Amino acid sequence: MKETIDTNNPEIRPVLNFSDTLIVSISFHLLAITSFEELSESLYSTAWLSVKWTDQNLKWLPSDYGGLVKTTVPPHKIWNPSIAVLNSIDELKPIDSQFLHPTVCSNGTVRWTPGSAFRTSCKMNVESFPFDVQSCELEFFVWGHEIESVDLEPYIDHVDLDTFKENGEWELIGSSLERKFLNTEGKPHPTIVVTLRLKRRATVLIQSIIIPLVILANINVLVFLVPAETGEKISFSVTILLAFGVFLGFINDRMPQTSETTSSLSVYMSCLLAFSAVFVFMSILIAKIHNKTQKISGSWLFLYMRVLRPCCGRRKDNITVTSEGKDEEGPKNSPNVTWRSIARSIDSLLFWVFFPPVFLTSFALLIIPSILNCSR
Length: 376
What we know:
One of its GO terms (cellular component) is membrane. The protein is an alpha+beta fold and 376 residues long.
């Protein structure tokens, strides 16, 4: 037996006829999803392969060797397929496990189980962040051989998860293993494609992003309930504006810069940031109106009488129009118009204009998906 192995040439494809195709069967056994780097769009995983083929040069009769049915052979002494990962981010090289000896059976069947830590590219779709589901692939091929010489096929049609350890950030919700072809220079090259479907565990992000964002979005509208005479109206709106800017930067730092999709959460936050800037502008305008001392013009009086007072004004106001913004007594049962009453009415109108859409949008885009995610 030793003589047979020593005289074997590991550089020659082990077939009886060089026109024959050597069939290499592969199964994929996933051990762990180590990490998923979103900025670089790279997946770290640990797994081992079960690779089988038939070596026509390593067949023997068990009766000739004391009933020996199988044995282990150093990998450098027999031919083995140069299997590599096509979408590897690190250097493109064959999987090498020189410390692991292949098992050879008397019928020529060789079983080799190399393992490695893989770093592969995975295009992210962040449109539904933080409730996104990613589909990542590992593509295996035999280096330096065309389909006429070496053909790849799956040994089992699924990913083996018997030894899989769950990841704390990503949940494996599905996997598949299938044979595909890669056309290069007009020739098909067989590949084994392992697909992993990963769902983000969003509980921590709900607590750190979604809940504070919902609170901020609704508090932002409350600036119109802060009385202008307190002097805190503008500082309140500016503080909320800065908070939105910080949140938007935090989310963008987690997103890949080359992604072809845009997170709906980022778009929503950009809209809230724009609304907050508008609220700051409106707060300054309302504060200016509140502190006016000149006589109220006819256009402002018309706006108050026809729009603001019917919607948001006080119906028990007197009719006297003042120039200093002070309340003065006028004829009974007639509206009294001051700059303060105009400012209060504008505040009330803007609150009811913005609060319902902000609340309903937050409920539809953030609260409902969070409840559905936690209930699964």
